[in-house]
Write a structure and sequence with these properties.
152 residues; mainly alpha; 3-stranded mixed β-sheet; NADP
């Protein structure tokens, strides 16, 4: 765990979502001068044991999938794929950057843009994550081709 504590799968999941938001915001800021857009996306809860949950215990996946459908919070594989395709190629998002897209309301197959949490908007944390990520994969924090000179 980043905070040095014992591994906690629930915290790890939440930390991964926060890191996705922090990294997206920093990438959006860094790449905007180059005309590159970066957004974060979550397809919602897709518990299909033959899809995203295929590597889970099949009994758990089947029961959990049934519960999420009955409660009305499940999304479908088709919705998740369609929403991702929309994010990737729809012209209405050509100049949109720094957004977080998720389902709202859950289970209704609708994509909405949300404001990130206060922690996800912390520019200091965004920069620290970017630097740590670059170091972990052995890259400079700003590759020469992405170093944009300041505008006069």
């Amino acid at each position: 765990m980043v905070d040095g504590g014992a591994y906690d799968p629930d915290k790890a999941y939440k930390d991964s979502k926060l890191c996705n938001m922090l990294f997206m915001a920093e990438a959006s800021r860094r790449f905007a001068p180059l005309g590159v857009t970066v957004n974060a996306f979550s397809p919602g809860l897709i518990a299909d044991p033959k899809g995203f949950f295929r590597n889970q215990n099949q009994l758990f996946g089947t029961v959990f999938n049934a519960i999420t459908q009955v409660v009305g919070v499940a999304e479908t594989n088709e919705f998740g794929g369609s929403a991702l395709a929309y994010m990737a190629v729809d012209p209405s998002l050509d100049d949109v950057t720094g957004g977080w897209y998720d389902t709202l309301p859950p289970g209704k197959h609708q994509l909405a843009v949300h404001k990130p949490s206060a922690e996800a908007q912390d520019v200091g944390k965004q920069k620290v994550l970017w630097e740590a990520s670059a170091a972990l994969v052995g890259l400079p924090s700003t590759p020469p081709m992405l170093a944009v000179p300041p505008t006069p």
